[in-house]
Amino acid sequence: MNSGRPKPYNSFETAQEQFDAVATRLGLDTGTRELLRSPLREYSFAIPVRMDDGSVRVFRGFRVQHNDARGPCKGGIRFHPLETLDTVRALAMWMTWKCAVVDIPLGGGKGGIICDPHNLSLAEQERLCRGFVRQVVRNVGPTLDVPAPDVMTSGQHMLWMLDEFEAIRGEHLPGFITGKPVGLGGSLGRTEATGYGVVFTIRETLRELGLRAEDTRASVQGFGNVAQYAIELLMQLGGTVTCVSCWDQKDQVAYSYRRRSGVDLAELRSITDRFGGIDSKRARELGYEVLDGDAWLEQEVEILIPAALENQIHIDNVDRIAPTVRLIAEGANGPTGPRADAVIRERGIFMIPDLLANSGGVTCSYFEQVQSNMNYYWSRDEVLGKLDLKMTSAFRAVAELAQRENLYMRDAAYVIAVTRVAQASRDRGWV
Ligand code: GLU
Questions:
Q1: 1 pLDDT above the threshold of 70
Q2: Which of 94, 365, 369 to mutate to test the pocket of ligand 1 (most atoms within 8 A of CB)?
Q3: Is 108 a pocket residue for ligand 1 (Cβ < 6 Å)?
Q4: Could you tell me if the CB of 150 is within 6 A of ligand 1?
Q5: Which one from 74, 98, 110, 390 is the annotated catalytic residue?
Q6: Which domain does 228 fall in, by range?
């Protein structure tokens, strides 16, 4: 029965709608459509964890493998209290397109655990990570499915997972997981890769639009790993970041922090917890204007960088985007809802879609895997140089197609990605 209430947002439905539109544009046959619009494999499991007080809590974990026609599945593991199988399905599908658009030989996967790590001790988090691996050990591995960090997970979590995996398998297999700490199988440059990659695509867009970084201002949603390194490189290029928005753990609400002359990255980092939450009381003391959570969207800036979670720009707030905005770079996965996306397209704002903008993370993960498997590690400059080359050439290919066929950048990126995955599936004789 229709309750009259609007249907809650579902990322997987959005991912499928995006795919269906491209499938129609490409004239994909029914078999290929069927295969690509849903995951190949899904694992949903319980993770019993002994808590510090001696009790046992059972967490829910997921790992979804959307498609591996182009290579082993690849994608992060998120910790989030609102995680669902559908969010993980969507994110796994987006990983398939992301790896394909940047042309690395990997497929798409994603994992998630329903939990709030703010409320777990480090020892409890360690047992949760080890418990996750015990549930999926038969279905993941360097040649099958390779996890990585994502929302609220870090190199430390990856290392615990690796240690558990290697203990069970009885051998060193550092190619099992990426985002590991440097010195323990990690790659130099991996921590900054996603944020820096976002800025490589912004730099290329500014060139297209005939703008100089020095003449631009940016507003950012999120202050986790992606946002912090995007801000760092953007500032190095001469840009100014005037506003940052993120979650305040104490108040359980999001705020935007504004300083019109430009935020001070080091200062903000010094009042931020390890999950990217800024202490609003201390921000106020430092002279930042503390505004509502969505205020980052209405700033008079040229660049918007949503780098938090999915569906943050939606039909109810998209009109808050200021007329000065020239480009949006999606640091997060799926930050723009489909109806808001249509408005942005209509307004002619240049969109750098998530599968392109934030592909630096997985591209560097691919480099990490290569290094781990060889047990030979490259310099930071070599890693970041290769990353820049890979992302810039992916950007050029998407921008050229968009120009040639008069497509929105998201559609052009999807056309390239889906064509590659469909081709690989056909070449293998799956469809
Ligand atoms: N979690 C990141 C993403 O969404 C990186 C995935 C990876 O490195 O495998 O792209």
A1: no
A2: 365
A3: no
A4: yes
A5: 110
A6: 191-357
Q: How far is the CA of 74 from the centre of ligand 1 (A)?
A: 7
Work out which ligand 1 atom sits closest to the CA atom of 364. Answer: 8
Q: Please state the rounded mean pLDDT for residues 32-50.
A: 98
Active site residue 250: no
123 to 15, 115, 215, 262, 399: CA distances (angstroms)? 36, 14, 47, 39, 47
Q: Is the CB of residue 136 less than 8 Å from the CB of residue 350?
A: no
Same domain, 233 and 137: no
Task: Judge if 121 and 212 occupy the same domain.
Answer: no
How far does the centroid of ligand 1 lie from the alpha carbon of residue 361, in Å? 5
- Three-state secondary-structure class, residue 302: coil
pTM: 0.96
365 lines ligand 1 (CB under 6 A): yes
What sections of 110-269 are H helices per DSSP? 122-136, 155-169, 190-209, 225-236, 265-269
Which pLDDT score, from 0 to 100, does residue 4 have? 55
Contact 194, 222 (CB under 8 A): no
Instruction: Give the pLDDT confidence score for residue 6 in this predicted structure.
Output: 62
Q: Is 358 in the pocket of ligand 1 (CB under 6 A)?
A: yes
Q: Please compute Rg for the chain using Cα positions.
A: 21
CA–CA separation, 117 and 152 (whole Å) = 7
pLDDT in tens, 117-131: 999 999 999 999 999
Q: Whose CA is nearest to atom 9 of ligand 1?
A: 75
Please tell me the total count of domains within the chain: 2
pLDDT bucket at 250, cuts 50 / 70 / 90: confident
- DSSP output for 56-77: EEEEEEEEEEEE-TTSSEEEEE
Judge whether 150 lies within some domain.
Answer: yes
